Amino acid sequence: MTVANDEPVANGDGSERYRPLPTGTHGLDPDDVKRDQRKRLQAALIELIAQKGYPGVRIVDLAKLAHVSPPTFYSLYDDKEDLFLSAYDEVAARTAKSVLLAYASRDPEEERLVVAMRAFAEIAAAESEAISLFVLGAFGAGSRALERRRRTLEEFESRIRTSRDGTGRGDSGDLTVKFILGGIREVTASRLRDGRQAELFAVADELAAWAAGYPRRLPDDLSVPPLNPSKSDDGVPLSERAQRAEGRLPSGRSDLPRQFIVKSQRERIVDATAAIAAEQGLAGLTIPKIAKRANVSYQTFYDIYPSKHDAFLGAQKVGMHQALRVAIEAYEAHESDWPRGVAAGLSALITFLASEPAHAHLTVVDTFAASPETIEIRGASMQGFAAYLLPGYELAGEDVAIPSIAAEAITGGIWQVFHHCIENDCLAELPLAAPQLTYLALAPFIGPSEAAKIAREADQLASA
Description:
Elements: H1 30-52, H2 59-66, H3 70-76, H4 80-103, H5 109-126, H6 128-137, H7 143-164, H8 176-193, H9 199-212, H10 240-246, H11 258-280, H12 287-294, H13 298-304, H14 308-332, H15 338-355, H16 357-370, H17 372-387, H18 391-396, H19 406-423, H20 434-446, H21 448-463
Helix pairs in contact: 1-2, 1-4, 1-6, 4-5, 4-6, 4-7, 5-6, 5-9, 6-8, 8-9, 8-19, 10-11, 11-12, 11-14, 11-16, 14-15, 14-16, 14-17, 15-20, 15-21, 16-17, 16-19, 17-19, 19-20, 20-21
């Protein structure tokens, strides 16, 4: 059997969704034929990204799976990224339309959130690969894809925010919607990665209840000033670790202990890896660049890390470990007062990220595009952060119904705000968001009024 583009269909393919239109004199509109070919190529891209990740997908594999010839592919799309953008736009538009339609169909707010979450869960369970592309696929697909993702999220957030606050305007200084969508995304992504998309039906109502628990209006004094993009981090002191790693050991023979020398070399390598990834992206990360920037020889690099991916993993672990350490130390200083411990830990974490911009970029943004292993490391670290929210359930008492998904969702919401500030070059201004993030983290457990009080106190202490 042959198809309209003369690409043979292998017997026993068993995939009806890639079955092409009939060949020969069929009287079909040429535009209909092209639409069918585009649809098959988009479906093939979604399937292959789920199997291999974006970097592992080749055009020859796409053409083969979609039953089109390579020349036909290039008559429809400029390149793989062009195809990705078309597939992403289609999935995003269809998902947003379904969710927003469901959200607008009910009142009060909690009912609207429930039906919207159920609509999203239904799509995610039925089309897990497509939704995985929507929430995760843009990472690693290039700058155009990331920009498209950013614009799509901003538009979606704006529409939800203006509808939610009841004024029709929305408050750009209110991060609640961004925070809530980040929590939903984190819960969704973790289940899609693990093949547990069926669980989304069970947690849809919990996520809706968690989101509905936040008041529509943020306390005025917790609103965030505009977080303006800035390439400069002047005024933000480097962390002690970064200052130590910036030092250079004397060249030639040294009487310093070998262990000390290797530690310094390793720190310089992970810092160089983080800096290059932040400045040039993963595509610009090479061993010669890392070695030159770290002021080590190629042999020294290979003595410490077998590959650039291992160096990336080393940098990721350093960033995550240090972030968790500073947060825990600040938290444990207020161990007998859980709300203030959370406020202190979050403030310390934000200060650390602002003082380590390259590592913040690598651990919060670049991790998604690197490999499944880096995403697993991130997931384990996120669970570690979420664990420090668990005492909030006991503090709230049995009379307060807090969704079991709250700690995981709150952690995801916090990380989404981090991601936004880092991706938009306003990390130095992230500390301005600390009071509001403290409020959002605590409100489900101790109530909005008490959470706002703790947030204000923590802000005053940080400013003193």
